[in-house]
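Q: Can I borrow your eye for a moment on a structure tokenisation matter? Would you mind producing a protein record, from residues through to fold? Write it directly below this note and I will take it from there.
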Amino acid sequence: MESASDFLEFVGLLAVLASAAVVFVTLARWIAGKRRDHTRLGLEMTVFFTVAFGFHHQTLKFLRLADYADDIGSTLATLW
């Protein structure tokens, strides 16, 4: 059962990193002036914060930072 938990923690980390990369690229293009699609940027940021909030416990357990899960969870909920 522990291997399934480790797998879920790893998948959570990958989901958070992938959604953060998408938001970073879109935000960089938006700042550079190449694209000014506010709706897409807002939607991608909403998806990122949703994924980050959904997987923050598993991701922080994988990174051995589970002590900060409640603080980071409330911060993500506020930003969302």
Notes: The helical segments are 2-32, 38-62, 69-79.
